[in-house]
Amino acid sequence: MSGESGVTGQEAAPASGRVLEEVGKRRAFAIISHPDAGKTTLTEKLLLYGGAIHLAGSVKARRAQRHAASDWMEVEKERGISVTSSVLQFEYEGRHLNLLDTPGHQDFSEDTYRTLLAADSAVMLLDNRKGVETQTRKLFDVCRMRRLPIFTFVNKCDRVGVDPLQLLDDVEADLGIHCAPVTWPLLDGLECLGVYDRRSGLLHRFRRTGDHGATRAAEETVALADERADERFPAAALERLREEIELLDAAGSEAAPEAVLAGRVSPTFFGSALLNFGVELFLKYFLEQAPAPGPRVVGDREVRPDDSTFRGFVFKIQANMDPRHRDRIAFVRIVSGSFEPGMTVTNLRTDSPVRLASARRFMAQDREMLEEAVAGDVVGIHDRGSLRIGDTLSGDGGPAFDDIPRFSPEHFARIRTEDPLRRKHLDRGLRELSEEGAVQVLFSESGPNPAPMVAAVGALQFEILLHRLEHEYGVEARLQPLPYHHARWAEGDEDEIRRLAGGYGRTLALDHRDRPMVLFETAFSLRTASEDAPGVTLHAVSP
Fold it and tell me: Lower CB count within 10 Å: N or C terminus of the chain?
């Protein structure tokens, strides 16, 4: 996130040596994947190796009433999926990790995109049979927009997949990023026997365990150059491996740190999150190479993580994380300075003081009080309704970070309640859930007090919306689906925008800030829009 221009700021004083040391330990990252690639399983295994949990529950185990640590909302437990973004924090080998857990189900939300704005790097999880899929591609585009370093884990190598060379060629052709294998599968025909670590020269043997990956996997290694490798693995598999390693070496498939940090090269690993194979190899490398918190530009000023002044931004708001408390939590990514209980900062949007009486760290729904947090950390603070997504909290005033953008929805419906006495409750629920990023609320200009429209990136968000309205706000609502599948924010002459929106299969709506949006029924109608109104600029991300 950059910030508003035109404001000159003073150089902030550097933080103390102890705070700088703590900042250097931080790693804030997110996992991007398509549904069923194994994101929840990989998340659990990272927590397992980090010591945050002692028994990992896979999706199959959850069917037997054990739930993943990252799935906390009731509907998530019912379905065994993640429908909200959580923050999972744990320690590993002296590093403090902030894992921004994003939904991995087929219908994700706009909130997923926004979470990537708080990350410093991303892990791209691929199914070894399918490679890049639709949702991964969408999330990758946001990572590219932010120039995030991306680390790739090719999952499900406990089962037969496509040829790994072909898989990486397809990824590079599809996404335009070079994949540099750090580990490489040892294949006997189509079966994966282990992985070869190109840095150490060691072969790591793949073994199935009796507990289905609930505990850490035992390591069995041998050097490829060691004659014992010929005793443990089939000759044909070793010959194939040596040939493929020669090809990779000749192609210069190395993960140079500067190219990784620039987002041009993705270090790539192979393994099975389900059975813990290759996970620790990946985690150790990731902690070595993933960036610590870096500076962010605000106007003509660079906010550095080692500045002593507190500065952060709200990237997520979650109401009713604990229905017993009817609470509302704002998730803040700290960019500089450190948090201390009782400190007062300024909300730059409203120019009003905000007392941070306390902050919390999270393991999904579980939380604990924090005495201190530093740049790179994500903290949850209680919000009485005054904060909005994108708000900058600052200890010294100054310019604000840019607004967090909204992303164009793909599903639309009108929403109503049959009980007029519950309309205020409906409006409140829609406002709060929209502020969370679960849905967008749109309005048309036609008719007196028309029913609002709801719009979402994923259709499942509508089901979640109805569920939450009923159980958290006491409103039984119903949806009337609308035929639109694309939306763009429109900038230009007002009359020309209206003329464009009046075309067949299109309509005009206003977002929560009264910005015009044109809704389209078909991709063809969207493609021809620029011809119909060349003076109108259309945006897939809010301007």
Answer: C
For residue 169, CA distances in Å to 179, 184, 311 come to 8, 14, 42
Strand (E) or helix (H) holding 298: strand 296-298
Q: Last residue of a domain, which of 266, 289, 312?
A: 289
**Domain contains 389:** no
Neighbouring C-beta atoms of residue 520, cutoff 10 Å: 23
**Distance from CA of residue 501 to its chain's centroid?**
33
Report the domain count for the chain: 2
166 contacts 244 by C-beta, under 8 angstroms: no
Q: Please, which residues bridge with residue 139 across strands?
A: none
The alpha-carbon radius of gyration of the chain (Å, integer) is 24
* CATH code of residue 230: 3.40.50.300
Query: What one-character-per-residue DSSP string does 18-66 give?
Result: HHHHHHHHEEEEEEE--TTSSHHHHHHHHHHHTTS-SS---HHHHTTT-
Vertex 283 angle, CA 282 and 288, to 5°: 100
Count of CB atoms situated within 10 Å of the CB of 150? 24
- Residue 12 tokens read as 């902030």
- Among 220, 254, 289, which residue terminates a domain? 289
Using CA atoms, how far apart are residues 95 and 328, in angstroms rounded to an integer? 29
In a shared domain, residues 282 and 416: no
Give the total residue count for the chain: 543
Q: Between the CA of residue 313 and those of 81, 139, 390, what are the distances in Å?
A: 28, 21, 6
Find, among 85, 40, 81, the residue nearest to 317 by Cα.
85
Nearest to 121 by CA among 138, 87, 89, 98: 98
For residue 407, what are the contacts with CB-CB under 8 A and spacing of at least 6? 110, 113, 457, 540, 541, 542
Q: Give the CATH number for residue 503.
A: 3.30.70.3280
Classify residue 391 as exposed, middle or buried by CB count within 10 Å of its CB (0-12, 13-18, 19+): buried
Burial class (CB in 10 A: 0-12, 13-18, 19+), 531: exposed
Residue 118: left if φ>0, alpha if ψ -120 to 50, beta else—which one? Answer: alpha
Return the exposure string of 429-451: e unless at least 16 CB atoms fall within 10 Å of the residue's CB, then b.
bbebbbbbbbbbbbeeeeeeeeb
Q: Is 449 left (phi over 0), alpha (psi -120 to 50) or beta?
A: left
Domain ranges, residue 463 = 411-539
Q: Can you tell me which residue has the tokens 């959580």?
A: 86
> How high is the pLDDT of residue 256?
92
Could you list the mean pLDDT of each consecutive 10-residue stretch along the chain, which spans 543 residues? 41 71 94 86 85 54 45 51 61 90 61 87 95 88 92 94 95 96 94 94 83 67 93 95 94 88 96 91 95 89 91 85 66 93 93 86 62 90 87 89 87 94 93 83 74 88 91 94 96 94 94 94 93 91 87
**Are 144 and 278 in a shared domain?**
yes
User: Does some domain include residue 297?
Assistant: no
Residue 333: inside a domain: no
- Residue 400: inside a domain, yes or no? no
